[in-house]
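Readers outside the structure-tokenisation community will struggle with the description of the input data as it stands. What matters is that the chain and its backbone geometry are given together, residue for residue. For illustration, here is how one protein appears when written out as sequence plus structure tokens:

…
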Amino acid sequence: MGARTSVTSSDTSPLCPLCENADTSFAFVGQDELGDSFPTYSCRNCGTSFLFPSPTAAQLERAYATSYYGEGATKFGGVIEQLRDLASKTRAQTMARNLPSQASILDVGCGDGRLLRQFSQLGRDYQLHGIELPGPAAERTAKIPRIHLHLGTLDTVEFPDAQFDLISLVHVLEHLPDPHQALIRLARWLKPGGRLFLAFPNIESWQAKAFGNAWFHLDPPRHLTLPSPTAVSGLLASNHIYLQKSAHWCPEQNLYGWIQSALNDLDPARNLLYERLKRNFGYYPKRKLAPLWHLLSAGLITPFAIIADAASVISRAGATVELTFKKAL
């Protein structure tokens, strides 16, 4: 897929990468952990937020360096990895409901294969496929039995139409340069009656609106497009794939988002605590006391974050959303 964020209309307004509308406007400048700036635009038609111009190849290479995937055998470690396993197990069990025993499942951007591994442990003869770029995460997936790993992207990997009973993208959609064409492609791969599961940051959330360019889930330049959940549902409905269920509670994403966003708002050392949790100890090495200050501040922020997160979930304005769709028969 081409990077549609670089396409412009005749009056030089960048086209929205989701709805392809030219009614867009500059929103703010986001920054990454290295201090690079990324102009961000918003679509007046569908509410999607996106980077324009697109990040350079060098910026993306730095953003996806080894440290992004964690410096150890896993991305984090200890209790955090156990919580991630529990979240993946819960997702797999939920998505497996009403699936035939030999269902064909595709996880796009499968990372270290965590979700597919949980499917493989459900005791059913699923056909498990994953797409992932070459790198540390794919190397971890390749070690898991019974998973058919396809190295590449949605552009380079091909499947027959109507092959899969279930397709999942767990925090992948926001990384794609052309989500419009990606969703259409996935619609073709889905069997009639098949389901599509999407989890991604919610640009319409309270958290996004409260913190602006300090929002943890903004994450430039890795997050190229932050689509509006409403717009995603509309695009899929036009391809006969209809929303069945939505959830705004995501314990491994949303609560921490409040904490890290508040820290980003207080200190220009963006995502310092998050990088330390990944054991990326080379990040801001000259600021010896900064990690301790961030850790102590996080402890003070946490009670308020719990209240804010609970209120946003109740109001269906969570920082991330999980949407389940079904293709018409």
Notes: The longest strand covers residues 190-201. The chain is about 35% helix and 20% strand. The CA atoms of residues 27 and 304 lie 27 Å apart.
